[in-house]
Amino acid sequence: MLATLPACPTQAYIGGHWCDAEDGRRFDVTNPATGAVIASVADCGVTETRAAIAAAKAAQAGWAALPAGPRGAILRRWRDLMVERADELALILTRENGKPLTEARGEILYGASYLEWFAEEAKRIYGEIIPSASANNRILVTKQPVGVCAAITPWNFPNAMLMRKAAAALAAGCTMVAKPAAETPLSALIAAQLGIEAGVPAGVFNIVTSTRAAEVGGELTASPDVRKITFTGSTAVGRLLLQQSAATVKKASMELGGNAPFIVFDDADLDAAIEGAMASKFRNAGQTCVCANRMFVQSGIMPEFARRLAARVAALKVGDGEMAGCEVGPLINEAGFAKTERLVAEAREAGARVLAGGARHAAGELFYQPTVIEGVTPEMSVAQEEIFGPVAPLIGFKTEAEVIALANDTIYGLAAYLFTRDLGRAWRVGEALEYGMVGINEGIMSSAAAPFGGVKQSGFGREGSRQGLEDYLDTKYMLMGGLSA
């Protein structure tokens, strides 16, 4: 185990300067695996948020005027620094988030992939010329950066969620003010440090660390200088941010809650389905936005699938993320642990049976045993709420039509998964599922090249892909007249 935490900034980063909160407040960052305090960070408020917005506004015109090539070169250098220091960044991430080091390092490389992708896409912001009804004029369409953007990012992927927002915004020519989650601010601060080394100009990328989420969020949404807000988090908070942003009619992209169905048909490759379930459900201890939340298994294979999944889950190695071979770390805090514990208890009371796990793990206060429950019905709370813990509820079904209806019976529509060898079924079910993303015979589908996002109350807008760049651009129409001789 590496004992020493790499050097990491603990102040906010505003306008090219590291700074403390004006009132001197700070907050502790703790390791969820041990409860130990690993850093004390500046606890900013309205004053610092306003300063960050002002800095971003001052830097906006100069950054937008920089040609796409030089902008992309800076992002590429930023990416290279992240890759070179991936082990260091992974240790910081594991200490504040709890996920296993191997997962943390994977996240760093995943975050870096967005910098690489958008560094290249910056050169492909195309306009168009549209034929006009008049010989005297031409219709020109151009794309311009939205302007100052605010990003509010979650604790479950503190590097990747920030990088996929910042990379797209900066590639498009926007500046940004980011507020990372209070549980995991260090990953954002070390990313900002590497951005400085890569040549990101002062004011282009700002970090406001805070436990005062309502104050900071309220200032970001109220400011007319902030032209776009991007948020990853709960649907409840997303609704509030949208309400607050309405007064200034901001552009917005929201990646909100999920209730992902994971569907296994009788004809599926059972080995592939088990591997997909393990990858989708238990990565980051089940604390992912696209985590399999409801596992629908067709009746013909339910006994075999349940037996094999329970055996794999029971063998998972749980512990401190820095422990050799660790596969599942702790939950992020007491609230997350209590919710997981409650959902399992309520399922048991309603008649479900625990096949593996089902209790606190001996590794520590925030560790919950990886769990499999069979006999779950759709009305149980464990099938209705986003679990955000290492619990796999198994729900039986008989027909294709039945499972499509069950899968779509939710306000959420972020990610869905299905396993089948039938090509026709793959198309039918994939198109019928009311979700922004569908993994077919795959348990992990995130990629910088693909449009990530949901429908219904899981949000709108896309991150990654060329669509992710479009979310930070405004379309301008110009009519050029006086062309006749």
Explain the overall architecture.
With 485 residues, the protein is α/β, with parallel strands linked by helices. It has 2 domains: 12-256 and 458-477, Aldehyde Dehydrogenase, Chain A, domain 1 (3-Layer(aba) Sandwich); 260-449, Aldehyde Dehydrogenase, Chain A, domain 2, CATH 3.40.309.10. Helices cover 39% and strands 20% of the residues. The chain is built from 15 helices and 20 strands. The strands form 5 sheets. Strands 14-15-16-13-12-17-18 form a 7-stranded mixed beta sheet, sandwiched between helices. Strand 17 (415-419), helix 14 (423-432) and strand 18 (437-440) form a beta-alpha-beta unit. Helix 3 crosses helix 4 (101-121) and helix 4 runs parallel beside helix 5. It is globular, with a radius of gyration of 23 Å. The model has no long low-confidence stretch (mean pLDDT 97).
Oligomer kind: single chain
Report the average pLDDT across residues: 97
Number of strands: 20
* Widest beta sheet: strand line-up: 14-15-16-13-12-17-18
SS-based class: alpha/beta
CATH A-level architecture of the largest domain: 3-Layer(aba) Sandwich
CATH topology of the largest domain: Aldehyde Dehydrogenase, Chain A, domain 1
Largest sheet report: 7 strands, mixed
User: In whole angstroms, how far apart are the ends?
Assistant: 78 Å
Overall 3D geometry?
globular
Helix-residue proportion: 25-40%
- Into how many domains do the coordinates divide? 2
Helix count, DSSP H or I runs of 4 or more residues: 15
Strand content: 15-25%
